[in-house]
Specification:
With 406 residues, this protein is mainly α. The chain is built from 17 helices and 2 strands. Helices cover 78% and strands 1% of the residues. Strand 1 and strand 2 form a beta hairpin. Helix 1 runs antiparallel to helix 7, helix 4 runs antiparallel to helix 7 and helix 11 packs parallel to helix 13.
Length: 406
C-alpha cells in the first residue's frame, strides 16, 4: 500500500477520473450518435448494436490478456503507453468512412480501453485503503457524469454540425492534453513488482487459479449478469427516442446533459453511503429503485420532450448508482498479490457483459413498417429480471478483508 498526502491522492484520483472520462465518452458518444451512424452508413439497429458490442468484446479480451502482464510493469509507464494508443484508436474512428472500417476502429479502441480500465482500477486498489475505496470509486464514477454533462452533449452538438466522426477528433485532442497531465502527476508505481518477474507459464497458472476460486467465479458471474442487465436498455434509448417519439438528434445532448448533471452530484455521496452503511445494502437499495425508471423508459407513453428532459435524470441517477457499490465491493475480493490480475479479469468480464447486453438488445429489437423500433418493452422486463437475480446474489460476495475481520 502506498501513502500519499491528501492533496496528492486527490490529484491522482481526479487525473484517473479524467482518463476514465475519455474512455466513457468514447463508449457513450456512440449511443446518441446512433441515429446518425445508422443513416450515414445505411446499417440496421442490429448492425449498430454490433458496432457498440465489438468495442466491449475487444475491451474484455484485452483486459483478460492484460492479466498476464499488468503486474509485471510499472503501472505509470503502462498507463502512459496504452493511453497514447487509445488516442490513435480514436483517430482511426474519425477516419472510418465505411461500416467495416468503423468496426475495425472500434475494435482497436476497445483493445486499448480494456487495458486502461484495468490499470486504473489496479492503481486505485494499490493506493486507496479499503475503508475509503467506496469514496474513491465514487470519484472515478464522476467521470461518467462529466462525460454525460460535457462530453456527450458536446459530441452530439459537434456531430450534428460537422458529422458523426467529429466527436472522435475531439477525443483525440482531449487525450493528448490529459496524457500530458498524466505524465506530470502519476508517480512511479512499482511496489507490486517482484525482484524476479514470474514466467509467462506461472502468470497463466495464476490466471487459471483466479477462475478456479469459487468466490472469484461468483463475483465474475455477478459482474457479467449485472452488466448485461445494464446494457440491454441503455444503448437504444437514443434510437428509440428518435424513431418512436420524434425527438431530434440535436436535442439528445440536452437530455444527457441533464442526466449527467444529476449523477455528478450523486456519485460521491453514493460512494460514501456504501462505505458507511455497507456496499451490499446500498447496492440492493439502488438496484430495486432502478426498476421503476427502467420499466418506465422502456414502456414510455407519448409525452413531450420537456417531460423526458425532467425524467431522464432519475433514470441516470438510479441506474448508475447500482454500479458504484458493486465496483467498490469487487475491489475488496482479491488478496494484494492477486489484485492486478483479478481486476484485469473482472474488467474483462464486465466488458464481455456490456457487449453481450448491447448485442442481445439489438437482436431483440426490430423495425416496423412505420419505422418504429419494436420490442423495447420486453427488453426492459428482461433487464429487470436479470438485475433481480443480482440483488439476491450479491449476498454471496465477501472480500478477503471482510473474511479476515470476521
Amino acid at each position: 500500500m502506498y501513502f500519499y498526502s491528501p492533496s496528492k491522492e486527490r490529484n491522482l484520483l481526479w487525473l484517473l477520473a479524467l482518463i476514465q472520462f475519455t474512455l466513457i465518452m468514447d463508449f457513450m458518444v456512440m449511443m446518441p450518435l446512433g441515429p446518425q451512424i445508422i443513416q450515414s452508413l445505411q446499417v440496421s439497429p442490429a448492425a449498430f448494436a454490433t458496432a457498440v458490442s465489438v468495442y466491449s468484446w475487444c475491451s474484455g479480451l484485452s483486459g483478460l490478456l492484460g492479466a498476464t502482464y499488468i503486474d509485471r510493469f510499472d503501472r505509470r509507464k503502462l498507463l502512459l503507453l496504452i493511453f497514447a494508443f487509445f488516442a490513435i484508436s480514436n483517430l482511426a474512428c474519425a477516419w472510418a468512412v465505411t461500416y467495416p472500417m468503423l468496426l475495425l476502429a472500434r475494435a482497436f479502441a476497445g483493445v486499448t480501453g480494456g487495458v486502461l480500465s484495468s490499470i486504473i482500477m489496479a492503481i486505485v486498489a494499490d493506493v486507496i485503503p479499503v475503508e475509503r475505496r467506496g469514496w474513491a470509486t465514487g470519484t472515478l464514477m464522476t467521470a461518467f457524469s462529466l462525460a454525460a454533462v460535457a462530453g456527450v452533449p458536446a459530441g452530439v452538438l459537434i456531430g450534428a454540425h460537422l458529422g458523426w466522426s467529429a466527436p472522435f477528433l475531439l477525443l483525440v485532442l482531449l487525450s493528448v492534453l490529459i496524457w500530458g497531465g498524466a505524465f506530470s502527476i502519476v508517480p512511479p508505481l512499482t511496489a507490486h513488482l517482484h525482484k524476479v518477474n514470474p514466467s509467462l507459464q506461472q502468470v497463466l497458472r495464476n490466471l487459471a487459479a483466479l477462475f478456479s476460486d469459487r468466490m472469484h467465479l461468483e463475483a465474475f458471474l455477478l459482474t457479467f449478469v449485472m452488466m448485461v442487465a445494464h446494457m440491454l436498455v441503455i444503448p437504444f434509448i437514443s434510437p428509440v427516442l428518435v424513431s418512436n417519439y420524434g425527438v431530434s438528434p440535436a436535442n439528445l445532448g440536452w437530455m444527457y446533459m441533464a442526466g449527467g448533471a444529476a449523477t455528478f452530484f450523486t456519485a460521491r455521496p453514493v460512494g460514501r453511503l456504501a462505505d458507511q452503511l455497507g456496499k451490499h445494502r446500498i447496492f440492493r437499495v439502488f438496484a430495486l429503485l432502478s426498476f421503476i425508471p427502467i420499466l418506465f423508459i422502456t414502456h414510455m407513453p407519448d409525452i413531450p420532450f420537456v417531460a423526458i428532459l425532467f425524467l431522464f435524470p432519475c433514470f441516470m441517477v438510479l441506474v448508475s448508482s447500482r454500479i458504484i457499490p458493486l465496483q467498490a465491493l469487487i475491489t475488496t475480493l482479491p488478496r494484494p498479490a492477486q489484485r492486478g490480475a483479478f481486476l484485469s479479469a473482472n474488467s474483462a468480464i464486465q466488458a464481455f457483459g456490456t457487449g453481450c447486453g448491447a448485442w442481445v438488445g439489438g437482436m431483440l429489437l426490430s423495425q416496423g413498417q412505420d419505422g418504429h423500433l419494436q420490442g423495447y418493452g420486453n427488453i426492459g422486463w428482461l433487464a429487470v429480471g436479470l438485475a433481480s437475480i443480482c440483488v439476491l446474489w450479491i449476498g454471496k460476495i465477501r472480500g478477503h478483508e471482510d473474511l479476515e475481520r470476521a
